[in-house]
Fold this sequence. Notes:
The complex is a heterotetramer, with two copies of chain A and two copies of chain C. In chain A, helix 2 packs across helix 3 (107-123). In chain A, helix 3 (107-123) links the parallel strand 5 (99-104) and strand 6 (128-133). In chain A, the strands form three sheets. A six-stranded mixed β-sheet of chain A has the order 1-2-4-3-5-6, with helices on both faces. Chain A has a six-stranded mixed β-sheet with strand order 9-8-7-12-10-11. Chain A contains eight helices and 14 strands. By secondary structure, chain A is an alpha/beta fold. By secondary structure, chain C is mainly alpha-helical. Helix content of chain C is 68%, strand content 0%. The longest helix of chain C has 19 residues, at 104-122. The relative contact order of chain C is 0.16. Chains in contact: A-B, A-C, B-D. The interface between A and B is large, with 61 and 61 residues. Bound molecules: adenosine-5'-diphosphate (2 copies) and magnesium ion (4 copies). One adenosine-5'-diphosphate sits between chains D (32, 36-37, 39-40, 43, 80-82, 85, 118, 122-124, 130-132, 177-179, 192-195) and B (79-80, 107-108).
Amino acid sequence: MKKLINDPADVVADALRGMAAAHPELRVDHENRVVFRGDAPVQGKVGLVSGGGSGHEPMHGGFVGLGMLDAACAGEVFTSPVPDQMAAATKGVDGGAGVLHIVKNYTGDVMNFEMAAELVAAESGTEVVAVVTDDDVAVQDSLYTAGRRGVGVTVLVEKLAGAAAEEGRPLAQVADVARTVNGQGRSMGMALTSCTVPAAGKPTFDLPDDEMEIGIGIHGEPGRRRVRLAPAREIAEMLLEPVLGDLDFTGGDGVIAFVNGMGGTPLLELYVMYAEVAAVLEKSGVRVARSLVGSYMTSLEMAGCSVTLLKVDEDLLRLWDAPVRTPGLRWGI
Amino acid sequence: MKKLINDPADVVADALRGMAAAHPELRVDHENRVVFRGDAPVQGKVGLVSGGGSGHEPMHGGFVGLGMLDAACAGEVFTSPVPDQMAAATKGVDGGAGVLHIVKNYTGDVMNFEMAAELVAAESGTEVVAVVTDDDVAVQDSLYTAGRRGVGVTVLVEKLAGAAAEEGRPLAQVADVARTVNGQGRSMGMALTSCTVPAAGKPTFDLPDDEMEIGIGIHGEPGRRRVRLAPAREIAEMLLEPVLGDLDFTGGDGVIAFVNGMGGTPLLELYVMYAEVAAVLEKSGVRVARSLVGSYMTSLEMAGCSVTLLKVDEDLLRLWDAPVRTPGLRWGI
Amino acid sequence: MADGLHTADLEAWIREFARVVAEHREELTALDSAIGDADHGTNMDRGMTAAVGALEAAPPADPAALLKQVGMTLVSKVGGASGPLYGTFFLRMAGALGPEPADAAAFARALRAGLEGVVARGKAEPGDKTMLDALVPACDALDEALASGKPLGAALEAAADAARQGRDATIPLVARKGRASYLGERSAGHQDPGATSTALLLDAAVSALAGSQS
Amino acid sequence: MADGLHTADLEAWIREFARVVAEHREELTALDSAIGDADHGTNMDRGMTAAVGALEAAPPADPAALLKQVGMTLVSKVGGASGPLYGTFFLRMAGALGPEPADAAAFARALRAGLEGVVARGKAEPGDKTMLDALVPACDALDEALASGKPLGAALEAAADAARQGRDATIPLVARKGRASYLGERSAGHQDPGATSTALLLDAAVSALAGSQS
Ligand SMILES: Nc1ncnc2c1ncn2[C@@H]1O[C@H](COP(=O)(O)OP(=O)(O)O)[C@@H](O)[C@H]1O
Ligand SMILES: Nc1ncnc2c1ncn2[C@@H]1O[C@H](COP(=O)(O)OP(=O)(O)O)[C@@H](O)[C@H]1O
Ligand SMILES: [Mg+2]
Ligand SMILES: [Mg+2]
Ligand SMILES: [Mg+2]
Ligand SMILES: [Mg+2]
C-alpha cells in the first residue's frame, strides 16, 4: 500500500488537522470530527448538514462554507459517521430555522442519520428534515436492493440546496429543492482500478489490465459488470445510455453535466471524457446549460469516473450560479 | 495502460475539445492548440502567455482567465509546445501593452519560447519579456545541470503576475512580480508511483512497493534518489529540509504554503501531508499567510506530491487575494 | 453459577467476542472486500475494542447496564451499517434484561429482543444475505433447545451451530439488503461478512457462557 | 551521380532517417524513460513523419529548400528539446548549402554548420551526454576521411562509425545538459536517446547517400 499517510488508523484525524490548518475560515471540531462553517450557526438560516465515510474528498468537508453546507461529519474511511457526530453537527448549525440532513442512500448512512435525528428530537426542539439522495442508475430501485445509491447528485444537491438556504428560504422549501434535484438527477460510474482502504492495506478488488468495472459506487465496491477496456468514446456511451434511458433530459432549460473523477484519474483524462460526454449529449438532443469537470466525489485513489446529469429549470440555474465559497467549489465571491 | 482516452495520439486534441465544451468562457484555438481567455486580447493590459507539455493539468490551460493567464499553449504530453503555438498565443493576447512569457526551466521549453520570441520579433512590434521559473531545489543550479527545474512556483507566478497585469501594471512591473515570485519560491517533490505516457504505453519507471522517489520533477522522470517508503510525517521533513535550507522563510509577512498533488494522489492524502507540512513550518518558525492544497500541477496519474513555499510581502498577498476566474483557480468573482 | 448469568459472565462474553473479532478482523474485511467496501473487520474491531475499553473505564453494575453500555459504545464508535445494527442489538437485549442475573430463558428472550431490534432498524428479512441469516436460526435453535430441556451450555452450542450453518448458507444467496445488494447476481458465491461476525458472537457465547450453568 | 548530392539524394536521406526513426521509436522512448520523460521516440517519429509528409505535399526544388523545409517542419511539429535542436540543425545545413547539388566537401561543411547550430541553440559541449556526443565525432570523422581523400561513401561510413562510438560512449557519462542532468549521478550507465537518434541519422546517410558518388 502506497499512500501519503502516517498510521492507517489516524488517516481521518490527520486529514482533518490538515483541513483545519489549510482553511482557517472553517472550524473543525476534532473530537466529533465535524467541519463547520466558521460563522455557524448562521441565525435565521436553515442549516445544512451532510457527512459520510471519509475517502470521498472534497466531499463533504470540502463543501462546507457560504452557499453550501454548514457542517459535514467525517466517518472512518468508507464508513458512515456515527449519530453522535451528526447530532453535534445538527446542534452546531441550528440558527433557529431548522436543519436539513443530506444523506446518501446507503444502509449505514441512513440508519446513523435516523438515529441522530432521534437523538436530536429527544434532546432539543430543532426541526430536522432528511433528504436521501439515490441517483445511481447502476442499481435498480426495487424490493431486491437497498435502493439506488446516492452518488454524484449529492454534490449538486449540496450546492443547490445550500444556495436556497443562503437566500433565506424556509426549511420546507430548501428540502424541496434538495428533493427536486435528487429526483431530476441520474448518475453512472466506472472504474479502471480498485482503491485500497488504508486499514485493509490491499486493493478491495483485483482488476486485470485489460478490464474495467461498470456501474461502481464510490466505496471501492465492485460494479455491476466487468467488461473489456474500451476507448473513452465507448465508455461515455456505456455510462450515458442507462442515464438517458432512465429519465428524459431533452428540452426545457437543459442539464448540468457533471463528469467526476474517482480520485486517481488526472484532469487530462476527465476532459477527454467530457468531450465524449458532450458529443453524446449533443447527438441525443440534450442541451448542456452548465458543466462541472473534476474530482469532487472520490473513492480514495481509484481511477475512473462517473457522469451525472441534472435536469434544470431557471430557478435551479440561478441557484447554481449563486455565490459559493468552500474549499472544493467556489465562485462569485 | 489504463486510461480514459481514445487513441493515445489524440489525447491532447481530445482534452482540448473537452475544455472547449466545458468552458464556453474560454476560446480554444484547436489548430494551434492554444487556450485563450474569451475576451483576449484585453486592450491596454499586459498579456500573459504560458504553456508547456500536456499532462500537467490544470496547468496551464486551466489557469487561463481573468486575473491569471491570457493564453496557454498545450504541447504533446510532456513535450514543450512548438514556437508556432507560442507565437500565435502571443499575437492573440497582445493588447498593446506587451506580452509576458512564463517559461518553466526545461531545455525544450526555453528553446521553443526563445524561437517563438524571435518569430514574433521578426513579424510584429509586440514587446515580449520572458521570465523563466526555476524553483526546484532537488536540482542544483550549477554548470553541471540544465539549472533548476520550474515546478510549483510556476502556478504562483501565473496567479500573482496575472493579478498584477489585471491591475494595469506595465510589462516591466509585471515581469518584476514574476521574477520576484520565482526568486522567493522553492519547491521539492516526491513520487510513490510512476506515470505512464500514453504514447509510450508503459510506466516511465518501475518503483518497488516499498520504495519512493525523492526529488522528482513533473515529467515522470525518476528523482534524485530512491528511499524506503516513509510516513507522511517523515516525507514532509524530507521535502521541507532542502527547501528551508535553501532560503530563509522566517519572518516578514510569512509564506504561501502550497501542497500539490501529482495527479493520482487523492485530496485526503494531500490534507494529511498539509497537516505535517504545517507542523514542520510551525516548528521552524515559518508563518503561513496563505495556503493552497490540491492537484494543480500534475504528472498524469503519478501518485505523489510536491511542496512549494513562497515568501510573501504585503503586495504579493494583495495580488494573491485579488479576484481570479479560471477553471483551475477561482475566487473573488 | 446455577443462579443464572451475572454481569461478569456477560462481560466475559463481550471480551471473548472482542477477542475473536480482533482475531478474525482481516477475514471479515476480506469478505467485505468481495461484496462490500472492505471495512467490516475494521469496524467491528474498532467497536469491540472501544466496548471493552469502556467496560474497563466504567464497569457497569448489572447485566442490563453492561449490555446497554456495549450498545451505546457500538452506536457511537462504529458507524456504517454494523454500528447501528449491532448497537441496536445490544441496546434491545439490555432493555429485555433486568438488573438481576439472567437465567437461560431470560437470556434467550433478550437475544430475540436484540434480533427484533436488528429487524426494526435494518428492515431485512431472512434470506437477504445479512447478519440476520445467522441470528435468526441461532435464536430459533436456542429457543428450541431450551424448550426441549437442554441446559444453557448445550443450547448455546446448538445456537452457535445454527449460526454457523446460517452463515454458510449465505454463500449462494443474492443479497437484497446492504451494500452487497448493489452487486446483484455478482453477490452470489460469497459469504456475508455480517453473518460471519454474528456467528462469532454466538461462538463467543459458547466459550464464555456455556460453562456458567453446566 | 558523380556531380554531387541532388535534391533526390537528400530526400532519400530524409526518408531513410524517417524510416529508421520509426523502426527504433520504441527503443528511443525506452532510453528516454530511463533518464528522461519517455518521449524521444514519439517526438522524432512525429517530426520525421511530418517532414516526409511535407516533402510529398510540396516537393522542394533544390537541396537547400529541401533541408530548410525539413528543419521548419521539425521546429513546428516536434517541440521539446529535440524539435528546436534537430530543426536548427537542418535549417543551418540548408543555410550552408546552395541551390546546386552539393559535393562531398559542401555536404561536410553543411553538416558542421548544422552541428554549430545545435551548439548555438543548446549550449552543450561534448561530454555533456547529448546528441552532440554523436554529432561532433561524426563531423570530425567525415572531415578527416574526406581530407585523406576517401570518397563520400567511405567517409560517411567513417562518420556513422564515429557517431555510433560516440553514442556508446555516452553510457558512462553523467549528464550535464537536458533533462537527464536532473538525475545527477543516476544518469550514468544509460545511453543518451538524442545521441542514439543522431547515430541513426548518420546510418541513414550511409544507406541513402553512400552510393551516390561511389
Ligand atoms: N439492512 C440490514 N439488515 C441487517 N444487516 C445488514 C443490513 N445491511 C447490512 N447488513 C449487514 O452489515 C454487514 C456490513 O457491515 P459493515 O461492512 O460494517 O457496514 P457497511 O456496509 O456500512 O460498510 C453486511 O455484511 C450485512 O450482514
Ligand atoms: N542543450 C542540449 N544540447 C544538445 N542536445 C540536447 C540538449 N538538451 C537535450 N539534448 C538532447 O535531446 C535529447 C532529448 O530529446 P527529447 O526527449 O525529444 O526532448 P525532451 O528532453 O524535451 O523530452 C537528449 O537525449 C539529448 O541528446
Ligand atoms: Mg462501510
Ligand atoms: Mg519531453
Ligand atoms: Mg463494509
Ligand atoms: Mg524526452
